[in-house]
Amino acid sequence: MAVTATQATGAELKAPSDFDESPLSRAARQPLMLGLFLNLQDINFSSLPTSNSWTFDYNAELVKRADELGFEIAFSRTQWLPKGGYDGEASLDSFIALGAMAAITRNILLISTIHVLYGPLHPLHLVKYCATLDHIAKGRWGINIVTGHRAIEHEMFGWQRIDHDKRYEMASELFEVLHHLWGEGENFSYQGKLNPWSVNNGWITPKPLFGRPNLVTATGSPAGIDFAARHSDLVFVISPGGAHIDSALETLPQHIKAVKDRARAYGCAVKTLINSIIVSRDTEAQAIAYADAIEAGKPQPGTRAFATNNYDSDEHAWRGRGDARHKQGRNLGGNIEIIGSPEQVVEQLIALKRAGIDGVQLTFYDFREDLDHFAERILPLMKEAGLRL
Ligand SMILES: Cc1cc2nc3c(=O)[nH]c(=O)nc-3n(C[C@H](O)[C@H](O)[C@H](O)COP(=O)(O)O)c2cc1C
Hints:
Layout: H1 23-28, E1 33-38, H2 56-69, E2 73-76, H3 94-101, E3 109-115, H4 123-136, E4 141-146, H5 151-156, H6 164-183, E5 188-191, E6 198-202, E7 214-218, H7 222-231, E8 234-236, H8 245-265, E9 271-280, H9 284-296, H10 304-307, E10 336-340, H11 342-354, E11 359-363, H12 367-384
Parallel strand pairs: 1-2, 1-11, 2-3, 3-4, 4-7, 7-8, 8-9, 9-10, 9-11
Antiparallel strand pairs: 5-6
Helix pairs in contact: 4-6, 6-7, 7-8, 8-11, 11-12
The protein binds flavin mononucleotide.
Flavin mononucleotide is lined by residues 77-79, 113, 146, 148-149, 218-221, 224, 236, 238, 275, 315-318, 335, 361.
């Protein structure tokens, strides 16, 4: 399979990080990047009341606030689930919704999750849609590349789940073709070997502003890490130890080193992000009481809400969650849990940075209220601690 894409100049296809003035390069200059997880999905994992809503308007207000606060990244996920959903049913598509947010934000990167094998979407569709969003967002938009880990999602699209590692090989072939189409100075033809599509004299212009859109991968498996090392600017790492901050801090340094070493072996550099929930109040006792109240409202075994979480998945990344050797968290949401007073939260963020984390993708139990608390009480302390410029 041909790997190296060329631009009109004949040079290798550049990544956004090759341009000093790209939004990605600007974001990466922060000591600890800040991302906001946008929940375009009806998540009701605890009955403790919140202001949350999956609607575009609620999330548009959040993304505007995050942009004003100087957050570097907004991200949302996509899931394809039958009636019954995940926790709740309603969900907006993050490809379209974050694309629309380009028009109401100024600096923040907008990362949409796309299941790149479903459909399958033809490479020409992807390359043109992505170049269009790249221009609308002036280089701020990007893809969180996922290949689909739940059997039920593949079945919804009309086939049996594709083998785990083969999915990454298929995605690699797809991205090599996308790179050609984003970079080539001439029409490009390719006959898919692992994928059921071909391209005959494919061409798009304008090209993306900074080589290609920003690319993100969320993975923990060897095949996924190998893919991420070759095809991503940012990698969502997942704590091999589970959600408790102590086990995350214990297991992350070695894991992050392996991810970065893998990228270096391909001559690439990746930044790491971790999806974290912050549960904070002015004092430690208040923060713990808040976490207790969230936990008390979680669905109990035997209820419908509890049962819908158990779709068959072949993912590797979250297996630390079931590992009894590690301290497990309270299952409050997010990949890891940061609980405490503002000072304690900042201490944990400093420790994550020392563990090799380049940015945190923040989730809150109550997005609007807790983002306010974060802005007023935690962000100033992060600046004092040198985590933010
Ligand atoms: C922050 C974050 C967001 C994710 N969003 C999605 C998503 O929207 N849709 C999806 O199918 N997988 C998503 N994933 C990926 C899966 O949860 C899982 O980690 C991945 O399929 C595992 O790949 P692996 O087997 O290579 O480790 C996300 C993972 C993380 C850490």
